[in-house]
Design brief:
The complex is a heterodimer of chains A (259) and B (296). By secondary structure, chain A is α/β, with parallel strands linked by helices. Chain A has one domain: P-loop containing nucleotide triphosphate hydrolases (Rossmann fold). Chain A has helices spanning 52-60, 82-86, 96-99, 106-117, 122-135, 152-164, 182-199, 210-216, 234-239, 244-258, and strands at 5-18, 22-36, 41-46, 67-72, 75-76, 89-92, 170-174, 202-206, 219-224, 227-233. In chain A, strand 1 and strand 2 (22-36) form a beta hairpin. In chain A, helix 4 crosses helix 5, helix 5 (122-135) packs across helix 6 (152-164) and helix 6 packs parallel to helix 7 (182-199). The longest helix of chain A is centred in the last third of the chain and has 18 residues, at 182-199. Chain A is globular and about 55 Å long. By secondary structure, chain B is mainly α. Helix content of chain B is 70%, strand content 0%. Chain B is built from twelve helices and no strands. Chain B has helices spanning 8-11, 15-24, 27-49, 87-122, 126-139, 143-154, 158-185, 188-195, 200-208, 213-236, 248-254, 264-294. The radius of gyration of chain B is 23 Å and the shape is elongated. The chains are: A alpha/beta (259), B mainly alpha (296). Chains A and B meet through helix 2 and helix 4 of A and helix 8 and helix 9 of B. Bound molecules: adenosine-5'-diphosphate and magnesium ion. Adenosine-5'-diphosphate (ADP) binds next to strand 1, strand 2 and helix 1 of chain A.
Chain lengths: 259, 296
């Protein structure tokens, strides 16, 4: 079975300018390689500053990687522009309050990817928008709302709808659960699992809570200071961690559970 | 679900419409807004409603007191100056020179300065950083000083005053808009738009501009205030408009020596300046607050 996503020796270093001539480069993540099969979920865990967000951003094209390649269905994404990339791989941001334009109606926010990437008529777009809203458990009427009228759980649903509306193969979610309360969080997890089952989408979830990671993911990558220190099937890695970093992450959270 | 449509019209207001709704609740703000509209109308139709022509001098009515004081006369409602010019007419004509001139210069520098700021803010790298450092240097000089320097090159006069004020205001707008656009570009909803494949123009139209209205409002308020102050100050210093032009600052300096003999000739133009600046700031600050509140 060929993987839907294969990442080969991808790396990113940020260049910071100090004054006019001196510059310093910070490695966000060293060359990393991994693959992901269709319909599976890959979790990326690691302490903060380990390069998880940078990796997620590089995958979706928010930042350009310093080296390496990203292939989706065997096609290298480096030669493609945003337009071709965004029909394949979409991103959901961490904070729903800053990822939705406060001056746009929800309907407009959802319509803009359709407008820019498809040839649909105005009516077909409206239908797609209300379908997407219903799919994430919102009402058609919500299309007229502005983001400030929604709760943060509802906003994150809109963000999910925006990711889904182009019917991508892969969705990358950067700590989308972190800002939600527990009950809303489990609703969103169930929603994601449902959507995944229906449409056979692959997910890449950057996550912190290992309990959730165990529940939703098939594969896991543990990152530390920009390197992958451990990877493999989630259950195996979490039950029998080999690397001290993984052990430490598990231990920290078990202490939290006991409290 | 059933009662979702009840009161819908009232609930779904665009953020800007909501801000306007909030502003209307602000009584002082509304009064100031009506006053500002009144000044604006006066500026436009002043020449048609002023009781006397601009250069009309009545030698038989020198230094008449305002009509409500003893010896005042109704047909010189605000009194006259030492050459027998009707103060009411002079102030009405002056509105065109002081307020109208400030309004025009601010409008022009808003257009040009914002355009430069938007282009600078949307681009990155070397040009943007040069623009940034250049503007920082320019802005460290107070606008009045900058205007005086420009006047000293161009020579005194009303038109040169406007030119100098225009040039002094440009960096103000450019810098503020540059900053706002630059900050806006790093926000996630803009990144999301970019990932959707939006062109820079579309990002600007739907993502950035609606979100920096607050910057435009507060900068325009500041610029209008500083333009009026600069125009009147230059007039007062004798570098700006010259008599017989009844620019408010020029009127002030012209009648300064009469302050004990005929205090109204000094007080009234001074009041005109003060009140205009006051209402501009009340309206500007009210709008800014309403826009900020309308966001959440
Ligand atoms: N825009 C940036 N410019 C410079 N350095 C950055 C930038 N973003 C992240 N970094 C650095 O890259 C490293 C990885 O950050 P990040 O990917 O945000 O980690 P994580 O999401 O795991 O917390 C950190 O050391 C961080 O300081
Ligand atoms: Mg992060």
């Amino acid at each position: 079975m060929i993987p839907v996503l294969s990442v080969n020796k991808l790396s990113k270093s940020y260049v910071q300018h100090h004054g006019l001539f001196s510059k310093k480069s910070i490695t966000a993540f060293a060359p990393v390689s991994f693959e992901l099969e269709q319909g599976k979920t890959l979790a990326i865990v690691g302490e903060s500053g380990s390069g998880k967000s940078s990796l997620a951003k590089a995958l979706t094209g928010v930042i350009t990687p310093s080296s390496g390649s990203i292939c989706i269905d065997g096609i290298n994404m480096a030669d493609k522009d945003h337009k071709q990339r965004c029909c394949q791989i979409r991103m959901i941001f961490q904070d729903p309050t800053t990822s939705l334009n406060p001056r746009s109606q929800i309907g407009r926010i959802l319509k803009s990817p359709l407008l820019l990437n498809t040839e649909l008529s105005e009516q077909e777009m409206d239908i797609r928008v209300s379908d997407a809203l219903r799919q994430v458990g919102l009402l058609t009427e919500h299309a007229q709302f502005y983001p400030r009228m929604l709760s943060s759980g509802q906003k994150q649903r809109v963000a999910l709808a925006r990711a889904l509306i182009l019917k991508p193969k892969i969705i990358v979610a950067d700590e989308v659960l972190a800002t939600l309360d527990v009950s809303v969080r489990s609703q969103l997890i169930n929603l994601i699992l449902d959507v995944q089952r229906e449409q056979n989408i692959s997910f890449i979830m950057v996550a912190y809570n290992l309990g959730i990671v165990r529940h939703i993911s098939d594969e896991i990558i543990v990152m530390h200071e920009g390197h992958i220190v451990e990877s493999g099937p989630t259950a195996e890695v979490l039950d029998n961690p080999q690397h001290t970093i993984t052990q430490r992450l598990l231990m920290n959270q078990q202490v939290q559970f006991r409290k | 679900m059933a009662n979702h449509n009840v009161f819908r019209e009232e609930h779904i207001r665009s953020p800007l419409a909501h801000s306007w709704f909030l502003y209307q609740q602000n009584t002082i703000g509304m009064v100031a807004l009506w006053a500002l509209i009144f000044v604006l109308i006066l500026t436009v139709i002043g020449p048609w409603i002023a009781p006397y022509p601009m250069d009309h001098k009545d030698v038989s009515a020198l230094l008449k007191a305002p009509s409500w004081v003893e010896h005042g006369e109704v047909h010189f409602f605000l009194g006259t100056d030492d050459l027998g010019r009707d103060l009411l007419s002079q102030i009405i004509y002056g509105a065109q020179l002081t307020f109208g001139g400030a309004f025009l210069t601010v409008a022009l520098s808003l257009l040009l300065g914002s355009a430069i700021g938007i282009i600078g803010g949307m681009s990155s790298g070397m040009q943007a950083s040069i623009l940034h450092h250049f503007l920082d240097t320019l802005l460290s000089i107070p606008s009045l000083l900058l205007a005086i320097i420009i006047i000293s090159v161009l020579g005194p006069g009303y038109f040169n005053t406007l030119l100098a004020v225009f040039l002094a205001l440009l960096p103000l707008f450019t810098r503020a808009v540059y900053r706002a656009v630059h900050d806006e570009l790093n926000k996630e909803y803009i990144i999301a738009l970019r990932l959707d494949g939006a062109t820079p123009l579309r990002i600007l139209r739907y993502g950035i501009l609606p979100n920096i209205v607050e910057t435009f409002v507060s900068q325009t308020t500041r610029a209008l205030t500083s333009a009026i102050l600069d125009i009147t100050a230059l007039g007062f210093l004798g570098l700006g408009a010259q008599r017989p032009l009844p620019e408010w600052g020029t009127m002030l300096s012209d009648t300064m020596e009469l302050v004990f003999l005929a205090p109204w000739t000094v007080t009234l133009p001074g009041m005109a300046i003060l009140v205009t600046i006051l209402i501009i700031n009340i309206v500007g600050e009210g709008l800014r607050q309403a826009i900020l509140k309308g966001m959440d």
